Q: What sequence folds into this?
């Protein structure tokens, strides 16, 4: 694949995903239901926020620098403390719910804006007043807890200093009593020196104790009080529905993609091209009007386009032989394709022979109108085959303004393979060797019978008619391998949307080409089977008695 082909491939894949519209719609519906359920089940939620700025305990309430750095280093610890059970218990006591401390924590979220010494207390509740009250309560409880913790630490240290200084004071008092009883001398000097050291230690401890008692234990200040929010927080019901729809689209596309990956059918033209290694020559528009085999309007123009593409394909132009087949099932659509391509080749000035090689359920002779007194000049009466086909019968078919082409009708035989490979059949197909002539052969489904493979080496060019929604890629690849192995070449494919057993290729009676008898001749079964589709059911067998006497007279005079 070339880089320039990637956008086309992506578009093709997206179009294939859109084939599963039901899955995508189901995903959207599920997403909307999920979004609506979340909106209704969660109810309105209000979030109130309060903010507290932190400071380090210090002697100087205006100090900064190292104290702020210490707080920044421990800001994570402060966040954990603010959301701890100890703070929640204080809040529970304040709001007269001492047993609900842990429950109160469920609505709390403590955050720290980047590069700040601020803690933000966000509290969510189903009532705006409750959210604001508890947010403020948590902020105040955190400050109270932190200040109480600092005071208790100071009290403990002061008590420790007191414990240290009491023995020293007692020892100093004892030295004072001893000094009073001593006279002049070395003993007095030693006692005075010891007393001086004790006094110095006592003074140092007393000074440290005084510093502790002078510390400012204020842990911070509330810089923003929580107020009752005016509107609920979070997405509203419309936002949730939109998110649900977006999620549903994504889910639907994912399911459709998984379905596409595991879908064995050839869903698009590109799949058919890759499987057959041949181009798609045309896609038949789907119509609903009943009629005969010969097409009109857009369908007829599509057939003309296919005929022109084939005429300028060197592989077909060299021998002008075309085998029209289907992968499986009914060949009613291939029958319509072969008839209309024959009519289109007649319009282009070719002398066309349509050979019905379906020797199991032949039906073309009963579904087409015979031309009175009109017959291509090059055609000869075919020889009668030993196996019962060809029967020696050659019917000129009226194609309206397009002209006329000859039909070699099929007939039921005991051994179809022997009849198709007989010398008269080979001679019949070789009529395309005449200048300006074209032979179109209609054969049964390739994967149902081997009849088409028996003709592939003599007809050369094969046209596969299929509904990409119902044919498997593996089947198309197998058809290509079988035809190549039999000596033929797949010239291309014709796509339709009528299924493998639906019998219409356009629902029409080709005006201007004369579909007078198409689909109306027979015992009435044709009109019933073709209701709504335009192609009647094939009769049991076609014989010479089915054709008017004047047609046989024309053939006799041509001999």
A:
């Amino acid at each position: 694949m070339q880089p320039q082909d990637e956008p086309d491939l992506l578009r093709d894949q997206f179009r294939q995903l859109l084939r599963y519209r039901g899955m995508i719609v189901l995903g959207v519906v599920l997403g909307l239901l999920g979004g609506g359920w979340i909106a209704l089940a969660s109810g309105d939620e209000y979030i109130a926020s309060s903010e507290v700025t932190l400071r380090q305990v210090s002697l100087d309430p205006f100090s900064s620098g190292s104290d702020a750095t210490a707080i920044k280093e421990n800001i994570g610890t402060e966040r954990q403390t603010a959301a701890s059970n100890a703070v929640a218990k204080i809040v529970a006591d304040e709001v007269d719910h001492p047993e609900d401390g842990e429950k109160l924590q469920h609505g709390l979220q403590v955050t720290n804006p980047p590069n700040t010494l601020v803690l933000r207390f966000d509290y969510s509740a189903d009532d705006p007043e409750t959210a604001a009250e508890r947010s403020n309560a948590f902020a105040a409880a955190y400050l109270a807890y932190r200040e109480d913790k600092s005071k208790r630490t100071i009290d403990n240290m002061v008590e420790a200093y007191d414990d240290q200084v009491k023995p020293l004071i007692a020892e100093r008092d004892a030295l004072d009593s001893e000094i009073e009883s001593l006279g002049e001398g070395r003993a007095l000097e030693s006692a005075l020196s010891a007393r001086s050291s004790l006094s110095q230690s006592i003074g140092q401890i007393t000074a440290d104790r005084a510093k502790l008692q002078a510390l400012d234990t204020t842990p911070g200040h509330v810089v923003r009080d929580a107020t009752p929010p005016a509107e609920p927080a979070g997405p509203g019901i419309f936002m949730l529905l939109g998110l649900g729809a977006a999620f549903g689209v994504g889910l639907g596309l994912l399911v459709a993609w998984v379905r596409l990956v595991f879908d064995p059918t050839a869903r698009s033209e590109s799949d058919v091209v890759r499987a057959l290694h041949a181009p798609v020559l045309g896609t038949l528009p789907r119509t609903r009007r009943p009629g005969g085999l010969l097409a009109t309007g857009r369908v007829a123009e599509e057939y003309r386009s296919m005929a022109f593409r084939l005429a300028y394909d060197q592989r077909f132009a060299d021998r002008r032989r075309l085998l029209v087949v289907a992968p499986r099932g009914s060949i009613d659509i291939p029958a319509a394709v072969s008839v209309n391509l024959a009519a289109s080749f007649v319009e282009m000035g070719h002398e066309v022979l349509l050979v019905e090689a379906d020797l199991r359920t032949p039906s073309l002779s009963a579904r087409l109108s015979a031309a009175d007194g009109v017959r291509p000049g090059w055609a000869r009466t075919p020889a009668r085959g030993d196996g019962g086909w060809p029967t020696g019968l050659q019917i000129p078919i009226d194609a309206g303004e397009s002209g006329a082409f000859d039909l070699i009708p099929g007939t039921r035989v005991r051994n179809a393979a022997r009849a198709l490979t007989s010398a008269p059949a080979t001679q019949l197909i070789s009529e395309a060797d005449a200048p300006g002539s074209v032979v179109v052969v209609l054969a049964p489904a390739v994967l149902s019978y081997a009849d088409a493979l028996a003709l592939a080496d003599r007809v050369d060019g094969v046209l596969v008619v299929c509904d990409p929604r119902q044919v498997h890629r593996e089947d198309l690849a197998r058809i290509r391998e079988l035809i190549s192995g039999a000596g033929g070449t797949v010239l291309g494919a014709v796509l339709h949307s009528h299924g493998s057993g639906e019998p219409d290729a356009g629902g029409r009676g080709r005006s201007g080409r004369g579909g007078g008898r198409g689909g109306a001749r027979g015992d009435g079964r044709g009109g019933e089977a073709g209701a709504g589709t335009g192609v009647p059911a094939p009769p049991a067998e076609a014989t010479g008695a089915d054709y008017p006497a004047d047609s046989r007279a024309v053939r006799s005079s041509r001999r």
Confidence is low (pLDDT under 50) at residues 502-559. The chain is about 50% helix and 10% strand. Residues 128-181 form the longest helix (54 residues). The chain has two domains: 46-224, 269-558.
